[in-house]
Amino acid sequence: MGVFILLKFLRSTLVLAYLVVSLIPIASLLLLVSLVKKGDFIYWRLGVPYLNGVIQAARVIGGVKYRVQGADILQALANSDQRVILCPKHQSTWETFFLPTIAPNPLSYVFKKELLWLPLFGWALYRLDMIYIDRSKRKEAWNKVAEQGRILMDQGNWVIMFPEGTRTVPGVDPAYKTGASRLGVATDAVLVPIAITSGRCWPRASFALTPGTIDVVIGEPIACRGRTPDDLMHEVKAWVETKMRDLDPESYRSKA
Over the chain, what is the mean pLDDT? Predict the structure, then answer.
Protein backbone atom coordinates (compact mmCIF):
# COMPACT_ATOMS: atom_id res chain seq x y z
CA MET A 1 0.00 0.00 0.00
CA GLY A 2 2.84 2.37 0.86
CA VAL A 3 4.52 1.74 -2.49
CA PHE A 4 1.24 2.36 -4.32
CA ILE A 5 0.73 5.69 -2.55
CA LEU A 6 4.31 6.73 -3.29
CA LEU A 7 3.96 5.84 -6.99
CA LYS A 8 0.65 7.68 -7.17
CA PHE A 9 2.27 10.76 -5.63
CA LEU A 10 5.25 10.64 -8.00
CA ARG A 11 3.11 10.15 -11.10
CA SER A 12 0.74 12.95 -10.12
CA THR A 13 3.65 15.27 -9.40
CA LEU A 14 5.21 14.57 -12.79
CA VAL A 15 1.95 15.32 -14.61
CA LEU A 16 1.49 18.55 -12.65
CA ALA A 17 5.08 19.53 -13.42
CA TYR A 18 4.47 18.92 -17.13
CA LEU A 19 1.28 21.01 -17.01
CA VAL A 20 2.99 23.98 -15.35
CA VAL A 21 6.34 23.89 -17.12
CA SER A 22 4.85 23.46 -20.60
CA LEU A 23 2.33 26.25 -19.95
CA ILE A 24 5.03 28.92 -19.73
CA PRO A 25 6.39 28.69 -23.30
CA ILE A 26 3.01 27.83 -24.88
CA ALA A 27 1.14 30.71 -23.21
CA SER A 28 3.97 33.14 -23.97
CA LEU A 29 4.01 32.09 -27.61
CA LEU A 30 0.22 32.28 -27.80
CA LEU A 31 0.27 35.85 -26.49
CA LEU A 32 2.87 36.87 -29.04
CA VAL A 33 1.24 35.14 -32.00
CA SER A 34 -2.18 36.52 -31.04
CA LEU A 35 -0.92 39.99 -31.94
CA VAL A 36 -0.86 39.04 -35.62
CA LYS A 37 -3.08 35.94 -35.92
CA LYS A 38 -6.80 35.41 -35.32
CA GLY A 39 -8.25 33.37 -32.46
CA ASP A 40 -8.95 30.24 -34.54
CA PHE A 41 -5.30 29.93 -35.55
CA ILE A 42 -3.91 30.09 -32.02
CA TYR A 43 -6.77 27.92 -30.73
CA TRP A 44 -5.96 25.01 -33.06
CA ARG A 45 -2.18 25.44 -33.40
CA LEU A 46 -1.30 26.28 -29.79
CA GLY A 47 -4.24 25.95 -27.40
CA VAL A 48 -5.55 22.51 -28.36
CA PRO A 49 -2.08 20.90 -28.74
CA TYR A 50 -1.17 22.10 -25.24
CA LEU A 51 -4.40 20.70 -23.77
CA ASN A 52 -3.90 17.41 -25.58
CA GLY A 53 -0.36 17.25 -24.23
CA VAL A 54 -1.68 17.45 -20.67
CA ILE A 55 -4.29 14.77 -21.38
CA GLN A 56 -1.64 12.47 -22.86
CA ALA A 57 0.72 13.14 -19.95
CA ALA A 58 -2.08 12.15 -17.57
CA ARG A 59 -2.66 9.01 -19.66
CA VAL A 60 0.95 7.89 -20.11
CA ILE A 61 2.43 9.03 -16.79
CA GLY A 62 -0.60 9.12 -14.52
CA GLY A 63 -2.40 6.08 -15.93
CA VAL A 64 -5.59 8.10 -16.57
CA LYS A 65 -7.03 6.52 -19.72
CA TYR A 66 -10.30 7.36 -21.42
CA ARG A 67 -12.87 6.05 -23.88
CA VAL A 68 -15.43 8.03 -25.82
CA GLN A 69 -18.89 7.08 -27.05
CA GLY A 70 -20.88 9.29 -29.42
CA ALA A 71 -18.06 11.22 -31.10
CA ASP A 72 -19.99 10.80 -34.36
CA ILE A 73 -22.74 12.98 -32.91
CA LEU A 74 -20.31 15.90 -32.63
CA GLN A 75 -19.06 15.32 -36.16
CA ALA A 76 -22.61 15.34 -37.52
CA LEU A 77 -23.27 18.66 -35.78
CA ALA A 78 -20.04 20.09 -37.21
CA ASN A 79 -21.36 19.35 -40.69
CA SER A 80 -24.51 21.38 -40.04
CA ASP A 81 -25.23 25.08 -39.52
CA GLN A 82 -26.74 24.39 -36.11
CA ARG A 83 -25.79 26.51 -33.10
CA VAL A 84 -24.46 24.17 -30.42
CA ILE A 85 -24.12 24.36 -26.63
CA LEU A 86 -22.30 21.54 -24.86
CA CYS A 87 -23.59 20.63 -21.38
CA PRO A 88 -21.04 18.30 -19.75
CA LYS A 89 -20.95 16.70 -16.34
CA HIS A 90 -18.32 18.52 -14.25
CA GLN A 91 -16.35 16.51 -11.70
CA SER A 92 -12.78 17.50 -12.49
CA THR A 93 -10.30 19.72 -14.27
CA TRP A 94 -9.80 16.85 -16.72
CA GLU A 95 -12.85 17.55 -18.91
CA THR A 96 -11.97 21.24 -19.28
CA PHE A 97 -8.73 20.11 -20.92
CA PHE A 98 -10.15 17.12 -22.79
CA LEU A 99 -13.28 18.35 -24.54
CA PRO A 100 -11.54 20.82 -26.88
CA THR A 101 -9.32 17.96 -28.08
CA ILE A 102 -12.29 15.98 -29.47
CA ALA A 103 -14.63 18.79 -30.52
CA PRO A 104 -14.50 19.44 -34.29
CA ASN A 105 -15.39 23.12 -33.76
CA PRO A 106 -13.68 25.66 -31.49
CA LEU A 107 -15.17 25.74 -27.99
CA SER A 108 -15.97 29.00 -26.21
CA TYR A 109 -16.06 28.55 -22.45
CA VAL A 110 -18.16 30.72 -20.15
CA PHE A 111 -16.08 31.46 -17.05
CA LYS A 112 -15.69 33.96 -14.21
CA LYS A 113 -13.51 36.94 -15.05
CA GLU A 114 -11.26 36.30 -12.03
CA LEU A 115 -9.51 33.60 -14.07
CA LEU A 116 -8.11 36.33 -16.31
CA TRP A 117 -5.93 37.47 -13.42
CA LEU A 118 -3.95 34.23 -13.44
CA PRO A 119 -0.47 34.90 -14.88
CA LEU A 120 0.01 33.54 -18.41
CA PHE A 121 -2.96 31.11 -18.27
CA GLY A 122 -5.53 33.87 -17.75
CA TRP A 123 -3.79 36.20 -20.16
CA ALA A 124 -3.84 33.51 -22.83
CA LEU A 125 -7.56 32.91 -22.22
CA TYR A 126 -8.16 36.59 -22.84
CA ARG A 127 -6.68 36.28 -26.33
CA LEU A 128 -9.02 33.43 -27.26
CA ASP A 129 -12.72 33.60 -28.17
CA MET A 130 -14.11 32.96 -24.69
CA ILE A 131 -16.91 34.55 -22.64
CA TYR A 132 -15.81 35.90 -19.28
CA ILE A 133 -18.40 37.32 -16.91
CA ASP A 134 -18.69 39.24 -13.65
CA ARG A 135 -20.88 36.99 -11.52
CA SER A 136 -21.58 39.83 -9.07
CA LYS A 137 -23.58 41.57 -11.81
CA ARG A 138 -26.09 38.92 -12.75
CA LYS A 139 -28.16 40.81 -15.32
CA GLU A 140 -25.13 42.25 -17.08
CA ALA A 141 -23.47 38.83 -17.01
CA TRP A 142 -26.45 37.14 -18.64
CA ASN A 143 -26.75 39.84 -21.30
CA LYS A 144 -23.06 39.36 -22.13
CA VAL A 145 -23.44 35.58 -22.37
CA ALA A 146 -26.48 35.93 -24.65
CA GLU A 147 -24.89 38.57 -26.90
CA GLN A 148 -21.43 37.03 -27.19
CA GLY A 149 -22.76 33.49 -27.33
CA ARG A 150 -24.87 34.28 -30.39
CA ILE A 151 -21.97 36.06 -32.12
CA LEU A 152 -19.48 33.27 -31.46
CA MET A 153 -21.88 30.50 -32.47
CA ASP A 154 -22.63 32.35 -35.72
CA GLN A 155 -18.86 32.40 -36.34
CA GLY A 156 -18.74 28.61 -36.01
CA ASN A 157 -17.77 28.26 -32.37
CA TRP A 158 -19.65 26.08 -29.94
CA VAL A 159 -20.41 27.36 -26.45
CA ILE A 160 -19.67 25.08 -23.51
CA MET A 161 -21.35 25.57 -20.13
CA PHE A 162 -21.24 23.25 -17.14
CA PRO A 163 -24.85 23.12 -15.85
CA GLU A 164 -23.71 22.29 -12.30
CA GLY A 165 -21.75 25.52 -12.19
CA THR A 166 -18.83 23.97 -10.32
CA ARG A 167 -17.08 20.63 -9.94
CA THR A 168 -19.07 18.05 -7.98
CA VAL A 169 -18.19 14.89 -6.08
CA PRO A 170 -19.04 11.59 -7.82
CA GLY A 171 -22.34 10.16 -6.66
CA VAL A 172 -24.02 13.34 -5.44
CA ASP A 173 -27.27 14.71 -6.87
CA PRO A 174 -26.38 18.33 -7.73
CA ALA A 175 -28.68 21.13 -8.82
CA TYR A 176 -28.43 22.01 -12.51
CA LYS A 177 -28.53 25.71 -13.35
CA THR A 178 -30.47 26.93 -16.38
CA GLY A 179 -27.83 29.22 -17.92
CA ALA A 180 -27.15 26.89 -20.85
CA SER A 181 -30.81 26.23 -21.55
CA ARG A 182 -31.66 29.94 -21.34
CA LEU A 183 -28.95 30.63 -23.89
CA GLY A 184 -30.24 27.78 -26.03
CA VAL A 185 -33.77 29.19 -26.06
CA ALA A 186 -32.49 32.72 -26.77
CA THR A 187 -30.34 31.59 -29.71
CA ASP A 188 -32.37 28.63 -31.08
CA ALA A 189 -29.43 26.30 -30.38
CA VAL A 190 -29.30 22.64 -29.46
CA LEU A 191 -28.02 21.33 -26.14
CA VAL A 192 -25.67 18.35 -26.12
CA PRO A 193 -25.63 16.46 -22.79
CA ILE A 194 -22.35 14.74 -21.93
CA ALA A 195 -21.72 12.26 -19.11
CA ILE A 196 -18.12 12.11 -17.83
CA THR A 197 -16.76 9.96 -14.99
CA SER A 198 -13.58 11.99 -14.49
CA GLY A 199 -13.95 12.33 -10.73
CA ARG A 200 -12.90 8.74 -10.10
CA CYS A 201 -9.45 9.37 -11.65
CA TRP A 202 -8.81 13.11 -11.24
CA PRO A 203 -10.62 14.28 -8.09
CA ARG A 204 -12.27 17.63 -7.59
CA ALA A 205 -9.90 20.31 -6.19
CA SER A 206 -7.00 17.86 -6.22
CA PHE A 207 -4.13 16.69 -8.37
CA ALA A 208 -3.82 13.22 -6.84
CA LEU A 209 -4.41 11.17 -9.98
CA THR A 210 -5.75 7.63 -9.66
CA PRO A 211 -5.02 5.25 -12.56
CA GLY A 212 -8.17 4.10 -14.32
CA THR A 213 -10.43 4.79 -17.28
CA ILE A 214 -12.67 7.83 -17.68
CA ASP A 215 -15.85 7.26 -19.67
CA VAL A 216 -17.14 10.07 -21.88
CA VAL A 217 -20.60 9.52 -23.37
CA ILE A 218 -22.08 12.13 -25.70
CA GLY A 219 -25.86 12.29 -25.94
CA GLU A 220 -28.12 13.19 -28.83
CA PRO A 221 -28.69 16.95 -29.29
CA ILE A 222 -31.81 18.42 -27.70
CA ALA A 223 -33.57 21.13 -29.73
CA CYS A 224 -34.48 24.25 -27.77
CA ARG A 225 -37.12 25.74 -30.05
CA GLY A 226 -40.52 25.90 -28.37
CA ARG A 227 -39.19 24.70 -25.01
CA THR A 228 -38.72 26.43 -21.65
CA PRO A 229 -35.29 26.66 -19.96
CA ASP A 230 -36.50 24.70 -16.91
CA ASP A 231 -37.95 21.91 -19.01
CA LEU A 232 -34.82 21.67 -21.13
CA MET A 233 -32.46 21.53 -18.19
CA HIS A 234 -34.63 18.90 -16.51
CA GLU A 235 -34.17 16.76 -19.63
CA VAL A 236 -30.41 17.38 -19.70
CA LYS A 237 -30.06 16.45 -16.04
CA ALA A 238 -32.22 13.35 -16.38
CA TRP A 239 -30.11 12.06 -19.28
CA VAL A 240 -26.73 12.88 -17.73
CA GLU A 241 -27.49 11.58 -14.24
CA THR A 242 -29.11 8.38 -15.56
CA LYS A 243 -26.05 7.74 -17.72
CA MET A 244 -23.73 8.51 -14.80
CA ARG A 245 -25.45 5.86 -12.68
CA ASP A 246 -24.93 3.35 -15.48
CA LEU A 247 -21.25 4.26 -15.89
CA ASP A 248 -20.29 4.64 -12.23
CA PRO A 249 -22.84 2.74 -10.09
CA GLU A 250 -20.39 2.25 -7.23
CA SER A 251 -20.11 6.00 -6.54
CA TYR A 252 -23.89 6.38 -6.46
CA ARG A 253 -24.35 3.37 -4.19
CA SER A 254 -21.83 4.79 -1.73
CA LYS A 255 -23.80 8.07 -1.52
CA ALA A 256 -27.18 6.34 -1.11
Answer: 92
